[in-house]
Design a protein that fits this description.
Blueprint lengths: L1 H9 L1 H19 L36 H37 L1 H15 L3 H12 L3 H28 L2 H8 L4 H37 L11 H8 L8 H28 L1 H4 L11 E2 L14 E12 L2 E13 L4 E5 L6 H8 L8 E10 L2 E2 L5 H7 L4 E4 L3 H4 L6 H10 L6 H14 L5 H4 L9 H13 L5 E5 L7 H18 L2 E6 L2 H7 L2 E6 L2 E7 H6 L4 H8 L49 E3 L2 E3 L7 H5 L1
Parallel strand pairs: 1-5, 4-9, 4-10, 7-8, 8-9
Antiparallel strand pairs: 2-3, 2-5, 5-6, 10-11, 11-13, 12-13
Bound molecules: adenosine-5'-diphosphate and magnesium ion.
Magnesium ion (MG) binds next to helix 12.
Length: 626
Amino acid sequence: MTAFFVLLARNRLALLGGIVLACVVFLALITPILPLADPDVTNTSNRFQPVFLDGALLGTDHLGRDLLSRVMWGTRLSLAVGFAAAIAAATIGAAIGIIAGYYGGRTDNIIMRGVDMLMAFPYILLALAIVAALGPGLFNALIAVAAVNVPFFARNIRGITVGIANKEFVDAARLAGMSNSRIILSEILPNVIPVIVIAMSTTIGWMILETAGLSFLGLGSQPPQADLGSMLGEARSALITNPHTSIVPGIMILIIVMSINLLGDGVRDALDPRLKSGALSRPMAATRVDRAETPPAASGVGLLEVKALETQFHVKNRIYRAVGGVDLHVEKGECLGIIGESGSGKSVTALSIMGLVASPPGVITGGAAYYDGEDLIGAPYRRLRDMRGRNVSYIFQDPLATLHPLYRVGDQLIEAIRAHRPIGKAEGRAKAIELLKAVRIPNAEKRINDYPHEMSGGMRQRVGIAMALANDPDIIIADEPTTALDVTVQAQVLTILDELRRSRGLAIVFITHDFGVVAQLCDRVAVMYAGRIVEEGATTDILDAPRHPYTARLMACVPELGGGKRRLEAIPGLPPVVDKLPEGCAFAERCDRVQPDCRSGGIALVRKDGRGVRCVHPVDTREAAE
Ligand code: ADP
Ligand code: MG
């Protein structure tokens, strides 16, 4: 709740609207105790007095009544009627919507066709018809305005309710034996209330205007009672000669409706979780690059060389240093493993290379990624698009999320192939079958017509690999491609990747949190922690003798087949949140070898004999061999 108000207050316009509205409502509430003239006392000798007069600050109207007093009393009445109409419409509309949405079937059909019929009339016409039937008067105007707005609420709420009524928690409540009315009250209603509030806050201004409109036509408040609409109506004949009689209530309506709408939009934005992170704003085509310093030059090792890469997320006034200066390289035909706990920055590193981190909030603030000598960071979008998939391609964890559910896998493969090559459909199909065979999908000619949901997880991930291979890339970046698979399928997928690497000379960057996988596939491995590489070297060396305590602890977490009753050690504590990294070693907090000097200054990655370690007190080789 406080979060809601904080969000609301951050929206300047909404805050302004809220303050203005609060002032107006406050003044309307205290109107009876203010020293105002009687709004209904006429004094024809004093008619059409101009503004700023002694005794009548806003002048007088055509009957000599005090305009200030009338506008205050009128505001009171207009606000009351507007709010009452909104609450009535929201309550009745929501009730209808919930009942129709919850019970569905025939109930829904009958109710919603009735609502449709109401919606088929232009609603001002409908309101006029209702007032004509009931007779003029403020209360009848209120009924008319509420009635014409009920369908709007009913439709909105029904839609939301239909979605909620099929959720598992509602089924669970049914299974628990709750009655329908209790389910509606305790399970459905709390979930639709935000929508009701949003709908109300954005329509209340309208309802005030509509009531004023009816009063303006003489169908609402009856003389001598003032509401803003009737004041405008009475002033109409003197519009040219004494414009202030129209301007005073006119400005008041403007202020009220403007402030309500500004506040209403703010309420909507604050309640909509999708708008909170700014996610609805369209991300840029490539990650924003904002490098303060000129990036380090390429040193010419490897097909892909990442140098001092820094990627941050700027969320509100926080800066998350997801990647804080990473150096990597991978040779042709080599497999480099990147390993680390969840949240250590592996995915962000991988995505930064091809500019795939969403911006906002992502920004690449430093470093370079040289592909064959060309810096990809900050390369024009056209160039990146041309290279994505053709030079560097990606495999992600969940192929169900990356494959389109409504297209056959074959069509998606063909599309991927044709994105970079102008070839015909038949040729594309032949190539797609060839790819499916390459990833060892049995019966490829038939399976090419499958939809993603018709395949098992392992098969889908093979399709994912085939997609990545579609344009014969030189580098495949695989981001935890086997994490969602069971161990035997994982082994098959790893074998396929290994074979492809050998037969096609592919370079693979393999991201994982599993040392077992690294041991099976990777030539070299880089261990990441809190956005930095803490240890790097040949897989065999590191597996034999880890030097960074973090690596050692990570390896202790891996179960060994036939390892007997060895205790599996979990690393205590959690990785640091990357917006407040501690000084010194980021792992110090959780390290059992920590010394006072671990917590000060920057700790460099020391390279020696093809290995790098970022630790002041690395594990001694002999000690680890024990
Ligand atoms: P992993 O190593 O598990 O792949 P990631 O690279 O996905 O980790 O994330 C690294 C860090 O970046 C995490 O601490 C995460 O909180 C942060 N991060 C990732 N995406 C965002 C985002 N959109 N906004 C803010 N922080 C993010
Ligand atoms: Mg990840």
